[in-house]
User: Fold these one by one.
Assistant:
Number 1:
Amino acid sequence: MALSGIQIYKLLPQTNCKECGFPTCLAFAMKLAAKQVELSACPYVSEESKAQLAESAAPPIRLVTLKSDGYEVKAGNEVVLFRHEKTFYNKPGLFVKIDDLQSPEEIKDAIAKADAYQVNYVGIGLGVDGFAVEAASGEAGKFGAAVQAVRSASKRPLILVGSDAAVLEAGLKVLTGETVMIYAADANNWEAMTHLAKQHKAVLAVSAPDVESMAALTEKVKEKGVEDLALAVDGGNLSKMLALSTQIRRLALKKNFRPLGYPTIVFPKNPEAAAQAIVKYAGFIVLDHFAPELVYPLLVLRQNIYTDPQKPIQVQPGVYEINNPQPNSPVLVTTNFSITYFSVANEVEGSGLPAWLTVCDAEGMSVLTAWAAGKFDAERIAKAIKTFSVADKVERKRVVLPGHVAVLSGELEEELPGWEIRVGPREAVDLPKFMKEAL
Amino acid sequence: MPVEIPKDKWPGSVRKVTLGATTAEGGTRGKTVTVGGESSLPFLHFESETPCRPAVAIEIRDRRPDDWSPLLIETWEEVIDDPAKWAKAAEEAGADLIQLTLSLTDKNGNPNTPEAAVANVKAVLAATSLPLIVFGPGQAEMDNALIVPVAEAAKGERLLLGICEDKNYRTIVATAMANGHLVNARTPMDVNLAKQLNILISDMGLPTDRIIMDPTTGALGYGIEYGFSVMERLRLAALQGDAMTQSPMLVTPGFEAWKTKESKVGDGVPEAWGDWLKRAIHWETLTAMTLLESGADILVLRHPESVRRVKAAIEELMTPA
């Protein structure tokens, strides 16, 4: 937890030498607390104070990064319990698990499919972040071959899953120059696992049944020199998972409790548990199989929850030409909230019918929300039509309002004399039908 | 290593609200459903007991819906033309509550009438012993025209009536007060608007234990993060002791999820979306799941498989680890 200016002041020489550029040590301490200067500006601060200040400046949840050739998955560095307090920063990595009981060929096929997966959501390409390989066979040879098969089909970061350090080592030997996660050290195997993690500069997941034993274990592992850790949260029971995740997050953020200041890793047993992991603090999520119809909603949920609440995703207001519109094509109107824009644009594009899509500046709100907030009214729509010189593009002056704001049609007629005002459907999904039949 | 778990001690709690009335209580329901009563954030049993389990309602219509996904039509095909049979089927599918939505028009396109609305509500009440939620079509004038006669005809049943919003709350609240019902106070995803409507309703004299708050939400991918954060903030305000945010919350993930393209459309969508039926049910279930984590007390759903999955999740969340 960050120290206050007064707490920092107590660690400074208190000589008011002014060499740091500030009139007093207290003034300098205040600037340090506000993170506006570097401690190195003070030439006389003791080594002991330096260490203490560095410790306090460390983030309460350590940033842990898995790396492979060209890819990175980061977790940790979170600062709040609720996204509305600021934002959630590092989206939990979404991994897919495979085990070494299958043949290398089967593994390659399955991994290649998941690796190539990409889905478009509001103009963003989303996909899985990496893979977990489980040493289910218990045989080092088989496991090494499985890891090799995975690595030949995907370059994404890996998590190696097993309880026998000797077997996992066979997997680590296959991989060079990357940061892997080893899952997991527990009360029985932690010494061997820690040794392995240290040797291969890997991130080590730590597993224990409750917060007390987990904290004790991370301390022991840290003493042996491994600091990049992840905390294993049982994904088998929703209630237990929620309690443990909440307790870990609170201890880290509210108490600055270092032994649990690490991102978590969860193996959810079903989609509901995966959704809970996304909204409640998971750092890494490992799915037990790959299915596009499940990965898609999970990726979207993650994208939504990790959106900065202060900055709704917006698109640039303006006229978007869809399917090569002509002077007799209709003018459609919507707001600049990105989800709204993409829902409408995708439908019109998919219909194959041409249109001038006019996006009004509604401060990044959806149609209904913007209308309720007075940011999407007849005046604003008319202003957009005029500012973007829509009249110069069309011969037939015909504008289609979203069905949710049908009530604006009268006012808009007054604002836009000479224009034909039409009321479209409420939902974007019904636009193609409307455009075919009613326009 | 001894670790002291930080526990929040909140001064406030969510009000308990009971839907439905048994014969002894002046209604005809076989049982009642009580929601609310939380004195911590959702399902944190290490902090305090969660006295009431969140309830799952199934949405039915007074007639075959025109704009529902073919997947839903197929699921309910056998009962979709008869609200009484539909209610029965919904009860068998595991619903704790039935939510009947009255349509704007009849199947021939003529405006719905108070007589038809009353007949349908009575038929549903006779077909199921579960407490009933009745929503109008969602246009303030039509809601008033249909909900008032329904409230009178079902006097004493402790129905939950909607849509009760800033435009028509006076009428809906007055009839709820006169006939012993509850209101579903709906506001568009905003903490202050939700609070304000609660104040206006309480000022009319409706006891606060007859108000459910409906902060509205968006589906997964369509603004769920707004609904999620508004609900978290409302719940935190309630726990901090703000009496006008202490109503239990109802949300309609079924309605929201099933109007998205992901659920509604099977053809001509990206291959990356995967299997249509599975995707649609995930969409509804995961929307509901997210809202459950942010404090939902009543979830209105549409597909029986989503109901089964959400109820299983609630069961697990209600059982302390």
Note: DSSP finds eleven helices and ten strands in chain B.
Number 2:
Amino acid sequence: MARSYNIFVMVKQVPDQGSKAGINPDGTIDRARAKRMLNPFDRYALQAALHVKKKYGGIVTAISMGPPPAVEILLEALEHGVDRGFLLSDRRLAASDTLATAYALFKVINYVGKFDFIFCGLQTTDGDTAQVGPQLAERLGLPQVTYCEDFSIENEKLHARRIIEGGFQKVVVEPPVLVTVANSYHPLEYKSFAGTYRVQQLQRNPEELGKFIKTIDLDLVGADIERCGLKGSPTIVAATEKVGEIGGSCAIHQGHSPEELVQELMKSSNISDYLVAS
Amino acid sequence: MSEEAAEIDVSQYCPKGDVLVVAEHILGELQPVTLELLGAGRLLSDKMEKSLIAIVMGHELGDMPQKLIEYGADKVYVADHPELKVYRTLPYRRVLCDFLESLAVPPHTCLLGSTTTGRDLAPRIAAHFDTGLTADCTELDIGPYEHKSKVDPTKIGLYPNCLYAIRPSFGESLKARILGPWKNPQMATTRPGVMIPLKADANRKGEIVKLKVKFKDEDYRLIVADTVREVSKGVKLTEADVIISGGYGLGSKEGFNLLYELAKCFPNSAVGASRKVVDLGWIPYQHQVGQTGKTVRPKLYIACGISGAIQHRVGMSKSGLILAINKDADAPIFKFAHHGIVGDVYQVLPELIKQFKAVQSGKEVEAVVSAH
Ligand SMILES: Cc1cc2nc3c(=O)[nH]c(=O)nc-3n(C[C@H](O)[C@H](O)[C@H](O)COP(=O)(O)OP(=O)(O)OC[C@H]3O[C@@H](n4cnc5c(N)ncnc54)[C@H](O)[C@@H]3O)c2cc1C
Ligand SMILES: Nc1ncnc2c1ncn2[C@@H]1O[C@H](COP(=O)(O)O)[C@@H](O)[C@H]1O
């Protein structure tokens, strides 16, 4: 018998690093000009949330914190089959580190209500810390399953397989639980035509759309402003330095026969030096 | 920074705590990253003239506490309890939080490895104590910092001893120095294979302190039903000068035969692999390179049919020369390889082997000439 799980999925909009737009010469990102996308790791979290809904029954709520354009990823989530979305958007959140982010998201979750599962991505491509999930679990006093790469629900318990050094672990836990989903979990399924059509219709009718996607602020969720944004962040980025090591320095050989490709490689690199014992 | 500027009393922000390393072990062996952290932690604590302390949690720990001393710790706290036998977030979190709360002065710095365990535990501790945590550091240092920004006046001041947590950011194109001197412990996790361990010294003296541990019912909510690990042995990946690695692009287990053949062209070479093919059972875990495999630094790394996911990259990006062979010109591996061949491994590898062999038998000139 289908049970109605309350499933939350935490999603973040990040700059698209594959696109050159908005990348400053010093390597920093101009967020206003950068192309934006759904954090690639959160696609796995979304898939996990939708899987629970499809297989076991429930309602999926996507939650995000970010500037107003982040509503785009909530629309995208809706197209994929998410039922509703909340965007916490507030100027006072600027310069939040992971601790302040986790605090703000914790307040949003308390505001939104009861849940059985919270799915997070493993990490973001801009923050890249994998910290927000466990920090959120700590605030909520929840058990957590990080690096989850597969799971099922049996007798109301989550049976999950998680990655560890040198192997894997099978764990069993009763919800509520927070899960961070690894990128070795199943990729996000394509959106359905029905989903895309529905969102197109909704976008024509802002009032109707507002029933499904709500933008909220810190006052509404009752957050302590001292714990948000720069003030609530115990860390700051004191300096950045460009490192040349990565990006654009690869000599790429292509478009020839394998024979010629290898010859090019042999000529332009010192690879043959390694062929003899030194 | 001038001496006079140090007038402001910042002792309240930088209490004179020690440097703490949270040890990690698998199947009775301390993890290399723990020894690396002791090496890095020793430098930090010496710079501040403080002690280096370590905590090890587990069950039946054998000579691990002693080993921690040999590798640099002045004092080792031991939490030994059957419930700690296998790592689980909540029991470990309980012990570590209770331990930190029991100290009269919190440690100045608290370090963990960026392993699946360290990255699971560290954020919980940081959130519990509302302190800063920097993930995946590649460098650590202690130094002064003057905070001038007026956005939060309570933070203005000169901080003489701050943890400099340095890490790559924005897809590794930038290095960021992250600080949080306002609260202790200042926390960081570091990437395995980056910091340098000290040489073990059996004559080093240190103190071992047993901790009393106590759990609450809620710590048992999650049950570990099974832990499957393969201990690495046999394959000398970390010592090889040349590593030929294969990924999902090889298409099958048999593809590795080609890699072994290529490896034969090089003295002191070994065959590596991505996690995906290890998971598929094409090759044993001992060959895995990456975040949850080995960190390697050979002179030459040849990646065959590997996309270059971040978790693979962190294990091999320090290699001297990286050659990638991949049929997709947009594969991420081409962003950090030094040389790339866009092509099918099954066409490129036989050709590579052929020409390498030709070089070795002195026919190099002939081969190059005949092409034009
Ligand atoms: C917590 C965690 C830890 C992890 N730890 C590790 C780790 O330690 N090491 C690791 O490697 N991964 C690790 N991973 C997995 C990692 O994210 C990637 O999934 C994995 O590295 C991908 O392996 P791959 O490159 O072989 O496969 P894919 O990503 O599928 O790439 C295959 C590549 O082969 C190319 N290709 C296909 N056919 C051919 C052909 N005929 N000729 C040439 N090229 C071809 C394709 O273009 C593609 O780029 C970890 C993941 C997580 C979540
Ligand atoms: N601003 C945000 N809004 C919603 N979820 C977030 C946000 N930041 C982080 N997360 C979640 O936490 C995960 C880990 O992020 P990070 O710690 O930044 O690497 C992400 O994959 C998201 O699921």
Note: Residues 55 and 189 of chain B are 15 Å apart (CA to CA).
